[in-house]
Design a protein that fits this description.
Order of helices and strands: HHHHEHEHEHEHEHHHEEEHEH
Strand content: 15-25%
Number of strands: 9
């Protein structure tokens, strides 16, 4: 979807209180606005005292971090730098702030939805192997859930020995999340068509789409995010190895965002067009956030104001629906525009994200403002006007994306853009009406190409000892 400027990342701290039971919530949390982590943890409890000996380190321990060295280590050179490095190797030190942040796997909602998108991400879809039915799928979801629970534990996280490749040894949890979902085809292959959500109906065809079916849809979907590339890759390999003999990879996409702490001050991330991206995303602190993003529980009000879960069966309570779109940005064409023209296409200043109607980045957009020459301050086809909830009868979604760059395409231009993930309680009330409007009237659409698409039902989170999807597969 081409909702780029106002949505791929929100400014909430993590983990989100609405998803977690407070008694299980990890106190290490990200700061507001950019997901920056809390200060580094104190010296590990298992570190030896006094003699400087180093004990073996687990998957979640880290030596010689930038947080331990401090600012002096960043500017020191030559012998001074070598001395600091040597000292760091001689004694255990605390985890760096980025590495120490942990997001619990268990909760009312799955992790990886309400939290800000991490610096590294992998999206991967699987198809069940021939003959693999409901029982095999349940066993796979249990293996996946057990592995994710182990890799994200807050005490001494690790990896089930059968899957461990030591790729992420010495690293902290780095905000790792692993999120699981079901595609429409999953239900027929497991004999569960009676549990197929109405909200999982096929997305309509949009005239401007150029979709590759080989990189679209799938029986199962996994989203992995972490603020360290090796931690994210390690989790991906664990998921792939655990699926062996039960499911095969249909497609995989790899993405990235700015690393937390890379800017002088907390700020909204930019996309590959250079635009500040995510200003108007729904935030967990807002009263309507849960209604927009999550399927209500039994007896709760649904998105249309009625009781129950609307177009979703009971097993989806606490879950959400993820629309996944691979959106290629035609960067060579975009970069030929002047900055002034780019700003008119988006409706915001490129330098600071402020709307062209005036104010700062967070100033509400004034869609009615007229310039002295009589023209609209926000053009009629500007992206933020066409995508605004006010232009779409209140339709909204939580956009949580990763940028991607896969080299140079066959046409000689960058194969780069956005791995767009939109979360909502009902995609037919969120994504679909907005994309219909964008597809026909968004000035930004001339610089985008939608190349892959999928929709997945993402059930609620797992409790202690449970696996994701257990209510569906054993209900």
């Amino acid at each position: 979807m081409s909702t780029l400027n106002d949505g791929s990342r929100h400014d909430a701290s993590r983990p989100d209180a609405s998803r977690r039971d407070p008694a299980r919530r990890d106190p290490a949390r990200r700061g507001a606005d950019n997901g920056a982590s809390t200060p580094a943890a104190s010296r590990p409890a298992d570190a030896p005292a006094g003699d400087g000996a180093v004990t073996p380190l687990s998957r979640r321990r880290l030596l010689g971090t930038a947080g331990a060295v401090g600012a002096a280590g960043l500017v020191a050179g030559g012998a001074a730098g070598a001395g600091i490095a040597g000292a760091a190797q001689d004694r255990p030190t605390a985890l760096a702030s980025i590495g120490s942040t942990s997001i619990p796997f268990e909760g009312v909602h799955q992790a990886g939805i309400a939290e800000p998108a991490q610096a590294r991400g992998h999206l991967v879809a699987f198809d069940l192997a021939p003959g693999a039915g409901r029982k095999a799928a349940a066993a796979l979801l249990r293996r996946w859930s057990d592995a994710a629970r182990e890799m994200t534990r807050t005490d001494r996280p690790g990896t089930p020995a059968v899957y461990d490749d030591q790729v992420a040894d010495d690293a902290g949890p780095s905000s790792l999340t692993v999120t699981f979902g079901f595609g429409r085809s999953f239900f027929a292959r497991t004999g569960l068509t009676g549990e197929l959500p109405q909200a999982l109906a096929p997305l309509p065809d949009f005239p401007a789409d150029a979709l590759d079916p080989r990189r679209s849809n799938g029986d199962l979907w996994v989203q992995i995010g972490a603020d360290d590339a090796l931690v994210a890759f390690h989790a991906l390999r664990v998921v792939q190895k655990a699926a062996r003999d039960t499911a095969t990879v249909r497609w995989q996409m790899n993405g990235f965002n700015r690393t937390p702490g890379a800017t002088a001050r907390p700020m909204t991330v930019r996309n590959l067009m250079g635009q500040i991206d995510g200003t108007n995303n729904p935030k967990p602190s807002e009263s309507g956030f849960a209604r927009t993003v999550f399927v209500p529980g039994a007896g709760a009000a649904s998105t249309d104001g009625t009781s129950g879960t609307g177009g979703s069966p009971a097993w989806m309570a606490g879950g959400s629906y993820a629309v996944v779109r691979r959106i290629r940005m035609l960067l060579d064409s975009w970069d030929h525009l002047s900055v002034e023209r780019q700003e008119k296409v988006i409706g915001r200043r490129k330098s600071d994200g402020a709307p062209l109607s005036g104010g700062t980045e967070t100033t509400p957009v004034d869609l009615e403002k007229i310039r002295p020459d009589g023209s609209l301050a926000i053009a009629g086809d500007a992206h933020i006007r066409v995508a605004a909830a006010a232009s779409n009868s209140g339709a909204a979604m939580l956009r949580r994306a990763f940028s991607y760059h896969d080299g140079i395409g066959t046409d000689g231009t960058p194969d780069a853009g956005l791995l767009f993930v939109a979360w909502q309680a009902d995609p037919m009330r969120g994504f679909v009406p907005v994309q219909r409007k964008l597809d026909g009237g968004d000035g930004l659409s001339r610089f985008l190409r939608h190349e892959a698409s999928a929709l997945f039902a993402v059930p609620g989170g797992a409790g202690p000892g449970e696996y994701v999807g257990q209510r569906l597969l054993e209900g």
